[in-house]
Each structure stands twice: as structure tokens, then as C-alpha cells.
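Consortium newsletter contribution from the modelling node. Members have asked for a concrete example of what our holo predictions look like. Here is one, prepared for the zinc ion complex that several groups have been discussing at recent meetings.
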Amino acid sequence: MSDINWPALQSAAQQAAAQAYAPYSQFPVGVAVLAESGNIYTGCNVENASYGGTVCAERNAIAAAVVAGERKFRALLVYTPQPALTPPCGICRQVIAEFFSPDAPVASCNHLQQQQLWTLGELLPAAFTPTYLANSSKVGA
Ligand SMILES: O=c1ccn([C@H]2C[C@H](O)[C@@H](CO)O2)c(=O)[nH]1
Ligand SMILES: [Zn+2]
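And here is the predicted structure:
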């Protein structure tokens, strides 16, 4: 984990947060993900008048990486200019679990230079992952 360039991830996520489209919540979020390739991808939250059509920064960052051909990731960092450090929401934890291992670090930071670090496994224990689908023909047959 020590070889992860967290300042680079924070800088990328902060720039992404500046592009957030959050007119309803006024809660801008930026996320940076570090792929196994070493490349960094970013996303911001994009809200919608329907509210339900809103997509979080985490899922947009992962989608940007996937369209670039990435499938495996080493770290994710959330940036919000909020006093409380924001963790990924439940839906995003599920999407992160599709591509990150349980021991992958998930960090949150803010404009006050505060940071909090979890593993994905701490945020989503006993995750439903693709492994279960691969084994589905053997289970309960
Ligand atoms: O980790 C989080 C938490 C919230 N949001 C967005 C969704 C919505 O646009 C706004 C308020 O929930 O923040 C994210 O993008 N990521
Ligand atoms: Zn989310």
C-alpha cells in the first residue's frame, strides 16, 4: 500500500470534484481510482432532476476506467469539500466490489487535509461478487 501515490489520487479527485454537477444536493464529490496499469481515472457525481437518475462519483470513475479497458484496481479515493469524511454509498460499494479485492484501500479526504482509510472488506463484508455467479451451477443444484 505504501507504493500508492495518495497525493496524486487526492489531486485528481479534487479536480474531478470541481466538475461535479450537483445542483440539487450542493454536495460535490470527486473520486480517483488507481488501476493495476498504474493509470488514474476520475469521476464526479452527476445529478438529475429525477433525483433517482443521479450517478455517484465512484461509479463514474470506475466506468471511465472500464471504457479505457481497465478491469483491476488497486485503490480508490473520495474527495469532498465537507467537514465529515464521506465514504462510498451502498450501491457504489457493490460496484467497487466487482473490480477491487477485499483488501484494497478505500480512502476519503477533504479540503481540511483530513483523511480516513478503510479496506473494501471493512466497508462491504461478505460482498456478493462475480465468484458466486461462476459457482452458481454447483450451488443448490
Ligand atoms: O460517496 C458518495 C456520496 C454521495 N455522492 C453524491 C450523490 C449525490 O449527488 C450527492 C448527495 O448524496 O453526493 C457521491 O457521488 N459519492
Ligand atoms: Zn454512491
